Amino acid sequence: MDRLPKVDFAELMKGRTKKFVIDNIRLFRDLPKTEEARIIGKQLLRSASSVGANYRAACRARSKAEFGSKLSIVVEEADESVFWMEIMIEAEIVNNQKISLLMAEGNEILKVVSAARKTALQK
Predict the structure, then answer these.
(1) Does residue 71 contact residue 116 with C-beta atoms inside 8 Å?
(2) Binning pLDDT at 50, 70 and 90, where does residue 31 land?
(3) Residue 40 is part of a domain; what is its CATH number?
(4) What is the Cα–Cα distance from 84 to 102, expressed in whole angstroms?
(5) Any domain includes 1
(6) How many domains does the chain have?
(7) What is the pLDDT of residues 45-88, one digit of tens each?
């Protein structure tokens, strides 16, 4: 399998993380109009939007240390996003079918960025 050039990978991930934010905004809009859905939904919205913003910041890092630090934030926030989605399912705020693709993307972003962080910090 051919590897994507570094710039192409970064641009691909910028697009994926931005789409992740937008998809979470759309999910939030469709949540039931209950207090618990609003509270958990806002937590999800904060962590998901941080994934996109901090990945973008990592791409503009001025040093390897800053790059690693920003990627670490992306990893934490992606994991937190998946956590809030799990809570929504288990608390029966949303059904698994409605959120499964979004949760799969969150887990995939988490895996990819974790691997990128590990590689960056080993260099």
Answers:
(1) yes
(2) very high
(3) 1.20.1440.60
(4) 12
(5) no
(6) 1
(7) 999 999 999 999 999 999 988 999 999 999 999 999 999 999 99
